Amino acid sequence: MKMKAVIVEDSRLARQELKELLKQHDEVELIGEAGNVDSGYELIQNEHPDILFLDINMPEKDGFELLEMLDDVPITIFTTAFDEYAIKSFEYNALDYLLKPVNAKRFALALEKAEAKLNEKKSQNAKGNRLSADSQIFIKDGEACWLIKIGEISHFEIVGNYTRVFFQDKRPLLYKSLNQIEEKLPEDSFFRVNRQQIINTNYIESVVPWFNGKLKLKMKNGDEIEVSRRQSYIFKDKMSL
C-alpha cells in the first residue's frame, strides 16, 4: 500500500516544489495540503496521514504548535529555509529535516527512512483508538519541545491541571489530564497504579511488598512509586503467569 502524505506549508511555491518531488515517488500518495496550522490540523484529523511534511516557520502559529495540538503525531519531516532549526528539530525526534530548496536525493532518503519507520509502526498492534508503543506525542514545556515515542515514557504523574511526563532524564509538563492520557495509552504496557500516576511496566526494575497490602515499584530511572492497595491486587493479577 502507498504511504499517505500531507503537506503543511504556508508558501505556495514551497508546496509546489514538494509536490513535484513527490511525483517521482510512486510509493507515496499526496492526500492533502494546507497553508496554515489550523487547516493543517483539520486535514490531519480527517485524513490520518502516514507522513507529514511540515514547515516550521509559519505566520500566527508555527509547526511546533501544530504538533502540540495532535494526540497522535504522524511521521514528521520538517521543511524550512532556516537551518538554525536543524539541531532543534532532531532534539524533537523528528524523522528528518529538509532545508529549502529541497535536494531530490535528500528527499528520496527521507522517504526511505519514512517507509522503514512506517513498517516498524505498523508492526505495533494498536487496539481500537489507542496509541501503540511506537506512536509519537509532541510535548512543549516552555521553550523546550520533544517528539517522543509512547514506549519511551516510564511514567506519568498529575501536577495540578497538568501531567508530568517522565522519559530519559526529562520531566516536562503536558497540558492534558491523566484521565485523557490513560484513555489513549496501550493497555498491555501501561498501568494506573494510583490516582496520581500511570507507569510503563517495561520500566519497572523491582517490586517490593509495602504496608497494608500495598506494593512499591522501583523504576529503572531510580524513582520509587507506591501502588494503592486496590491497584496492588489488580497489578498482581495482571503481572502473574
From TrEMBL:
Pfam families: LytTR, Response_reg. Residues 4-115 form the Response regulatory domain. Keywords: Coiled coil, Phosphoprotein. GO terms for molecular function: DNA binding; phosphorelay response regulator activity. The keyword Cell wall biogenesis/degradation does not apply. SUPFAM superfamilies: CheY-like. The modification 4-aspartylphosphate is found at residue 55. It comes from the Bacteria. The keyword Metal-binding does not apply. Residues 104-131 form a coiled coil. SMART domains: LytTR (SM00850), REC (SM00448). Residues 137-241 form the HTH LytTR-type domain. Signal peptide: none annotated. This is Two-component system LytT family response regulator. It comes from Flagellimonas meridianipacifica.
